[in-house]
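## tool: complex_structure
## caller: assistant
## args:
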Amino acid sequence: MKDLVLDPAPRPLDTPEQLETRLREIGATRYHNLHPFHHLLHSGQLNKAQVQAWALNRYYYQSSIPIKDAVVLSRFRDHAVRLEWRQRIEDHDGNTHGEEGGIERWLVLTDALGLPRDYVTSTVGILPATRFAVDAYINFVRDRTPLEAVASALTEVFAPQIHKERIAGMLEHYDFVNPGVMKYFTRRVEQATKDADFCLDYVKRNARTPEERQRVVEALIFKCNVLWTQLDALQHAYVEGHPPPGVFDPKDWA
Amino acid sequence: MKDLVLDPAPRPLDTPEQLETRLREIGATRYHNLHPFHHLLHSGQLNKAQVQAWALNRYYYQSSIPIKDAVVLSRFRDHAVRLEWRQRIEDHDGNTHGEEGGIERWLVLTDALGLPRDYVTSTVGILPATRFAVDAYINFVRDRTPLEAVASALTEVFAPQIHKERIAGMLEHYDFVNPGVMKYFTRRVEQATKDADFCLDYVKRNARTPEERQRVVEALIFKCNVLWTQLDALQHAYVEGHPPPGVFDPKDWA
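## result:
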């Protein structure tokens, strides 16, 4: 249990229903829709440079997701889970019949923001905190149990709502945003709903003891921390004006 | 070279001397003695709660160092390097003849700040960014080449100066600090100097191509990022007042 250290207030988890209640509590208190940076983003209070910084940093997260999902897939001898999970890699990487994936759609957004693709994909300008948090996610799904690896994707349960807020808010407030640019998010609304249903059902069926359920809870807290930390770092660097040495400087790409 | 992405302005590195010059440039521009949080700490501008948050979070870093060093040691078939490196584990963990190590000396500091040892060692209250950054350091020395693993310790070249500033500044400004409490730092001044000499000599002799020297440079940038990111997170949470959900709340330990 040494690795269970993220939950300051554990609750009884004797049933799958108690687990779901607890997971929804965590979403309601720790999911990054609550973060002040998202409030600024969605209400049009960021300038273009700040939106650039967000899109540039989040590219590292987006482009790491299929790597993370490949690690998750590799943890399962159960063919049915592998089949289910493989769809996620295709969602982000696209397929050989020419259908674009989520990463390509993210680059449409960074294009619209005036960031060169070579610069974005090099990741040289991202915040160190972004890299640490995202890499922690990849390591988590490799080092923890397969149950915890699946559970760390449970943030998808809360994602469709934030995507809808973001699409509406960004379309309304920013002149560099149009429906084509927001296609990443419109597509994710449907994808994330399906993925979330699978994850929630999986953890409710496969976490069979209170300790296993606590592992699921901690995996969700961990993942909320991965998302929240990225926004804290963006806010500190680009809203409060304390960029660490060597990172993206909007003046270079204005 | 895909993993070399941290240096926005690479320089020619054709000789060991060019390497040393570049390493000292990085120290002069990226080492965390330059971070505003350290300026506040050393000049007495933090309150006790903020010093508590610093000591609590840095405990996670301190207590991870012997684990990091054990991973480094495990990378070497060269007996001489293992013998040299083993001393570092003893410096932090102490020895069986009853000599305390750096972790124990760190807990003397958290004791003096009124933080219960069980709480400190549980790490439940630390910032997620602290955990991500420190864990990234452990993963780095496991996943990169042995040369890069050694090079990531090169921040010790710049450490004695910051320890001296800290000892003088904290003794002068904080009434909860006395020489016994600062013993961690007084001891580290001599340890770090010896360790730094070994590392600098090692990378100058063992990085034999420009690419290998660039790997050394990036390892030092990486490690500077590990240290800087921890202070950015402390400043954002406890100076600017944006603590993420679930972390140390000074009101609980006033």
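## assistant note: The mean pLDDT of chain B is 95. Residues 29 and 41 of chain B are 19 Å apart (CA to CA). Handing back to user.
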